[in-house]
Amino acid sequence: MKKGYKALLEEANAEVNALAPADAAGLLGNDDVTFIDLRDPRELDREGRIAQARHCPRGMLEFWIDPESPYHKELFATGNHFVFFCAGGWRSALAAKTAQDMGLERVSHVEGGFSAWKEAGLPHEPGKPKG
């Protein structure tokens, strides 16, 4: 293997802005900031969500960003500051680097992801109980 996930994460974290959960929370509600939740639907259902966040499955990110893609979402053409998060901060670091590499200029990710967000007692909607 030429490059494993640890090397990819190291590169991403060296190039993208990581926000502590409390700092990220301070951006909630700003008209020019969009939170992007990269977790899969099962994670959202199980763990809960940040009410103002938009959901983008990690596997669709590149297609949603690229204006030439048939799956492009205008959301990514707004010029907003995009704050990516996942469960633990790994997928969001890689996603933020990808978004930056694709030309989005204002990109960050939540250090420690949604788990750190919840641990910090920041606002979120609870998950759905099983049953």
UniProtKB/TrEMBL annotation:
Pfam families: Rhodanese. It comes from the Bacteria. One of its GO terms (molecular function) is thiosulfate-cyanide sulfurtransferase activity. Residues 29-126 form the Rhodanese domain. This is Rhodanese-like domain-containing protein. The lineage of its organism: Bacteria, Pseudomonadati, Pseudomonadota, Alphaproteobacteria, Hyphomicrobiales. PROSITE patterns: RHODANESE_3. It comes from Nitratireductor mangrovi. PANTHER family: THIOSULFATE SULFURTRANSFERASE PSPE, THIOSULFATE SULFURTRANSFERASE RDL2, MITOCHONDRIAL-RELATED. SUPFAM superfamilies: Rhodanese/Cell cycle control phosphatase.
